[in-house]
Amino acid sequence: MNDAAPRLPGGRKAEIAGYVNRLGQVTVTALADHFGVSADTIRRDLDQLDADGLLIRMHGGAMSNSAVPWHDTNLSDRARLQASQKDRIGRIAAELVQDGNVLFINGGTTALSLVHHLSNKRELIIATNNLALPVEINPEACRDVYVIGGHVRLSGRVTIGPVAFASAISGVENDIHVDLALIGVGAVDTDGFSTSNLDEAAMLAQMAARARRVAILADSTKLGRRLFAAIGDLAIADYLITNEQPNTELSAALSAHSVQVLTPDTPY
């Protein structure tokens, strides 16, 4: 696409992101031909768009965020998706946490983004299936960290299994309850919250059922979508924390179920 007037870099980058998202996957050569610029220029643009979390930079080209299935990508790749948006979500979620709280924090990069904003908290007790969390959390913020679940899913560095502990002394399984569950999910629509894995969905539902308050964490790419495994309807949540206001239909459904939506623009 060769325009007579020069295109501003910002505008070109936005067009590149949109073009890649429409096609799913595009090579550097194809992008250079389409936008009438050099391959080196395209590479620089793709590097910046990847850093901004707007697409996935690959060898020889780029791939749309939506074209990358969650279960087929590792944690480091997913961490680059919507990175700045997830950081803002994590900052908001941390505001709900009070010193001395008992928390559930699940696996995934959106929930992990919260951990970096808990450094100023104290005396937290955290139960998690997120194997990356113990090495990311500020030790001064926590009194104890417990890892729950059974088998390990290596690609996501999470455990999947029951939300309970067996006593080291009696061997009897102990149920647990928490003040606040902070749960990152794969999709949110008017029917509720969902993810791509049945066992994970069951685990997240157990987390929500054992919490006095539930905050669902989901960046805007998850809104208006539905995945294979249902976690629960909208009523299981007290809060939805996201980076943009949901559309009118989803906003109405959340309001009908008394779910408070928190975004960077929400006064609270």
TrEMBL record:
Domain HTH deoR-type: 9-64
SUPFAM superfamilies: NagB/RpiA/CoA transferase-like, Winged helix' DNA-binding domain
Keyword field contains Cell inner membrane: no
Keywords: DNA-binding, Repressor, Transcription, Transcription regulation
InterPro entries: Carb_Metab_HTH_regulators (IPR050313), DeoR-like_C (IPR014036), DeoR_HTH (IPR001034), NagB/RpiA_transferase-like (IPR037171), Tscrpt_reg_HTH_DeoR_CS (IPR018356), WH-like_DNA-bd_sf (IPR036388), WH_DNA-bd_sf (IPR036390)
Name under which the protein is recorded: Lactose phosphotransferase system repressor
Organism: Actinomyces succiniciruminis
Function, as annotated: Repressor of the lactose catabolism operon. Galactose-6-phosphate is the inducer.
GO terms for MF: DNA binding; DNA-binding transcription factor activity
Listed PANTHER family: GLYCEROL-3-PHOSPHATE REGULON REPRESSOR (PTHR30363:SF4), HTH-TYPE TRANSCRIPTIONAL REGULATOR SRLR-RELATED (PTHR30363)
First and last residue of the signal peptide: none
